[in-house]
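Incident log, support desk, overnight shift.

02:14 A customer reports that sequence design results differ from what the structure should imply. Their input is reproduced verbatim below. On-call engineer (initials T.W.) acknowledged and began investigating.
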């Protein structure tokens, strides 16, 4: 791909999408078009640092709206799509899977169809065009206590969220085999960092601790995830977009496996140091074990050696450092999450499927 082109980022007002947008505008020469429908999970503050750039453009658009997506493609003429728009919270998918099927499956289908029509009209652009579909390691299901997911691991999604992402991955690969669409699929492990919506584990624990609420550990807290700092994921996606092989899949991970209980205890340690409780006791006293999530996958781990070997990418931020930076960010950006807390998500338990 040329060093200069236009990247259409879907979901660029979300957590990972906004990190990608910030990286693309600040660290590359691409024009960036951010297409986002601004669901409850989106905040435009997350891209405020680059919104004045003449290489940045925002489109308030829903990817399930085929006409709208087609018009965006025709007017901005992107050389690549980085597809991140999705419904992403497993607990919400348990309570109501409707939006997950609509955006993750139907939305991806519409986007594929729009890009197919766009490229059919421009056969010369096809060979350098890339459609990079951003997915999750959750499509592979739960792991035994040892081993890790690889690019060849069979799919076995077990939540409505992961099933909808798996369906989207299959559509994307089918459009490659059937219509020769120049796609790449990525499956990444759990991300954390600035601008993550307060419903997700790490911000939920940080904010609940600061609010003096209990820190709810689902089940025994021994569910293990591989944690990756969001800026490392953003760098990986840009490298994959530029140098990944069409038709290939890349697993992205942080080689930082931690249980939910370990992550929460670590957050408490960092908060104890950075913002001690007024009574000088540890935030760990707020930890409370609660009913587990239905169908909660026990363990995910990602073997990201292909990405490391073939594209030279490495996760640069060790978990210990990343979690300190993340806690500090939430302490310094209280205005960002307090408004979300009052207007969009107050911290109540989700995902019991009631
Ligand atoms: N967060 C993780 O740990 C993680 C890990 C691996 C993969 N992923 C994948 O990365 C992508 C981004 O995840 P995230 O955590 O940043 O999600 P997020 O929930 O923070 O953001 C999703 C964004 O998509 C937008 N969106 C939702 N429906 C839309 C629609 N119909 N049309 C246009 N925009 C829409 C939202 O407004 C929001 O800005 C998702 O595809 C997710 O499956 C996430």
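02:41 Re-run completed on a clean worker. Output:
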């Amino acid at each position: 791909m040329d060093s200069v082109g236009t990247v259409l980022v879907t979901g660029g007002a979300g957590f990972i999408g906004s990190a990608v947008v910030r990286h693309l505008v600040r660290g590359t020469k691409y024009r960036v078009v951010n297409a986002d429908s601004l669901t409850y999970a989106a905040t435009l503050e997350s891209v405020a640092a680059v919104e004045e750039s003449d290489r940045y453009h925002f489109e308030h658009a829903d990817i399930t709206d085929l006409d709208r997506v087609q018009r965006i493609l025709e007017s901005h003429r992107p050389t690549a799509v980085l597809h991140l728009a999705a419904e992403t919270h497993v607990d919400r998918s348990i309570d109501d899977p409707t939006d997950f099927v609509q955006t993750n499956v139907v939305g991806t289908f519409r986007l594929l169809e729009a890009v197919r029509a766009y490229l059919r009209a421009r056969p010369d652009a096809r060979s350098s065009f890339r459609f990079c579909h951003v997915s999750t390691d959750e499509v592979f299901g739960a792991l035994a206590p040892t081993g890790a997911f690889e690019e060849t691991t069979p799919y076995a999604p077990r939540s409505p969220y992961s099933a909808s992402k798996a369906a989207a991955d299959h559509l994307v690969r089918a459009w490659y085999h059937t219509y020769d669409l120049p796609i790449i699929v990525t499956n990444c492990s759990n991300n954390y960092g600035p601008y993550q919506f307060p419903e997700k584990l790490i911000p939920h624990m940080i904010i609940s601790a600061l609010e003096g609420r209990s820190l709810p550990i689902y089940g025994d807290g021994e569910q293990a995830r591989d944690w990756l700092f969001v800026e490392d994921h953003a760098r990986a996606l840009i490298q994959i977009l530029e140098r990944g092989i069409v038709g290939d899949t890349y697993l992205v991970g942080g080689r930082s496996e931690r249980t939910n209980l370990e992550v929460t205890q670590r957050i408490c340690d960092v908060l104890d140091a950075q913002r001690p409780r007024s009574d000088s006791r540890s935030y760990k006293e707020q930890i409370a074990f609660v009913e587990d999530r239905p169908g909660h996958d026990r363990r995910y781990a990602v073997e990201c050696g292909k990405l490391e070997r073939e594209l030279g990418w490495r996760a640069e931020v060790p978990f210990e450092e990343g979690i300190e930076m993340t806690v500090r960010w939430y302490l310094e950006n209280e205005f960002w999450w307090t408004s979300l807390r009052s207007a969009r998500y107050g911290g109540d338990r989700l995902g019991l499927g009631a």
